[in-house]
Design a protein that fits this description.
14% strand; Outer membrane efflux proteins (OEP); 462 residues; 4-stranded antiparallel β-sheet; 8 strands; S-adenosyl-L-methionine-dependent methyltransferases; alpha+beta; 3 domains; 10 helices; elongated
Length: 462
């Protein structure tokens, strides 16, 4: 009896476990809309993180360039031990060969090197030596070299800020494209499901007519083939949702195993701005243009720095030194200050080459600014024309879906009464499905086109 109860209890426990697991899985589904998707992308996107690190690096370069204009204070110290110190021998009388004061030179007796009493051994230095030095240097005049470098660093920092802004704009467009790609994929699934339902209804009508002997088996076979095709399209649509979701999760830097759901709608705001005004706005607010202009200004400062490399510079210095050893009764202290001038005489033409290189870099930056302006105008024009095209398609297809639905309703009634064949009904069903797909695609193209236009001009369109 117990053996009979055990399998029953085991199956009940397994069922409850699966139920709890399924409930936990359902709770883990993350619902995303466009707003929180943008926030998640800003926090997790690797491109944004890289741009933020570039900005921090540029900020550190400002501090480095500023440090070149400030005084530099350095201290050093050392301890030296000499096992053996230097020794020297001198004559006891008239040391170093000089006569003793008060004696006549002629009366001096010549010391004999063989007589040790006439020699004295002296030690120079000490065994234990301690020395410390404090050095201060301050650039006084360098033809603006350090100031130009500081200005160039500040300009590069501002350029990096514009690059970060451009990265945000690009990310915003990418999020819009990926978000609405998932949204339209989900809508395609609904359209495919509606198509399957229509074909199933058609198959039921055809089967009923065939069973009653009113029609041949042709309509049934054709409906079955059409049902298989619709189900295939539904499978592809569902797989398209998974593919779009994986791309979306990759963009947001989310785990591919994480379950997400996208909620949103295709909102169609009206735009009243003309093309010329949009191009003017793009030239004023597009971060890539501002970044290129700032880099160009920084290049001019770097050229000014390069031109000072072969010019003299003046610096102030001051030194304070202390030393002590076991032979001294008082520590030595030495303080000095002065001015130092450095005059480049010949550097192997390195300064001239540096100027030429800076001039070439500046020319490249100037050409780059022109290219970016031209590319920006091209991007704005294309985005504007694509937006107008999508808006026109939306207006054209505004009544198409309703008309196609009415056509399917009439064709279904006619098919039920034997007035048309399954071919005619299938044509109207395909036309309805195509009308829904075209309208969804037009709505998708409009909202994505609007995001592209806003990215092209570098600001939101009110």
């Amino acid at each position: 009896m117990n053996s009979g109860r055990f399998p029953y209890s085991k199956w009940v426990g397994t069922f409850l476990l699966l139920l709890v697991t399924c409930s936990a899985s359902a709770e883990k589904v993350k619902v995303l809309n466009l707003e929180n998707s943008l926030q998640i992308a800003k926090e997790n996107n690797l491109t944004i993180q890289s741009a933020e690190q570039n900005l921090k690096s540029a900020e550190a370069q400002i501090r480095t360039a500023r440090a070149a204009m400030l005084p530099r204070l350095a201290a050093s110290g050392n301890y030296t031990y000499f096992k053996d110190v230097q020794k020297s021998v001198i004559y006891a009388q008239g040391g170093f060969g000089f006569p003793i004061p008060g004696e006549e030179t002629n009366g001096m007796s010549t010391p004999s090197p063989d007589n040790e009493a006439d020699l004295i051994e002296l030690e120079f230095g000490a065994h234990h030596n301690v020395q410390g030095t404090v050095n201060l240097t301050q650039p006084v005049f360098a033809w603006g070299r350090y100031y130009y470098g500081y200005q160039a660093a500040k300009l590069r920092y501002e350029a990096e800020k514009k690059e970060l802004a451009a990265a945000y704009e690009k990310l915003r467009l990418d999020v819009h494209e990926a978000f609405y790609r998932v949204l339209i994929a989900q809508e395609f699934v609904k359209v495919a499901e509606q198509s399957v339902a229509l074909v199933q209804k058609q198959l039921g009508i055809a089967q009923t007519s065939f069973d009653a002997g009113a029609t041949t088996n042709f309509d049934v076979l054709r409906a079955k083939v059409q049902l298989a095709n619709s189900e295939s399209q539904l499978i592809r649509a569902k797989n398209g949702v998974k593919t779009a979701q994986n791309a979306y999760k990759t963009l947001l830097n989310l785990s591919l195993s994480e379950q997400i759901s996208v909620e949103g709608s295709f909102e169609i705001p009206e735009i009243q701005i003309q093309l010329d005004e949009l191009i003017k706005l793009a030239f004023e607010t597009r971060p890539e243009i501002s970044q290129s202009q700032l880099n160009e200004q920084a290049g001019q400062k770097q050229l000014s720095v390069a031109k000072t490399r072969n010019l003299p510079d003046l610096a102030f210095f001051s030194n304070y030194q202390i030393s002590h050893n076991e032979r001294l009764t008082q520590m030595n202290r030495i303080w000095s200050l002065g001015l130092q001038i450095n005059i480049p005489i010949f550097d192997g033409f390195a300064s001239r080459a540096g100027v030429q290189q800076s001039e070439s870099i500046l020319k490249q930056l100037q050409l780059g600014t022109k290219q970016i302006r031209s590319a920006t105008e091209f991007e704005v024009r294309n985005a504007y024309l694509a937006l107008l095209e999508a808006k026109t398609l939306i207006n054209v297809q505004r009544e198409t879906v309703a008309q196609a639905q009415e056509s399917v309703r009439i064709a279904t009634l006619q098919f039920e009464n034997g007035m048309i064949t399954s071919v005619g009904l299938t044509d109207t069903q395909l036309a309805l499905m195509q009308a829904k797909v075209n309208r969804l695609q037009a709505l998708h193209d409009y909202v994505v086109g609007l995001a592209k236009l806003e990215k092209a001009i570098g600001q939101r369109i009110q």
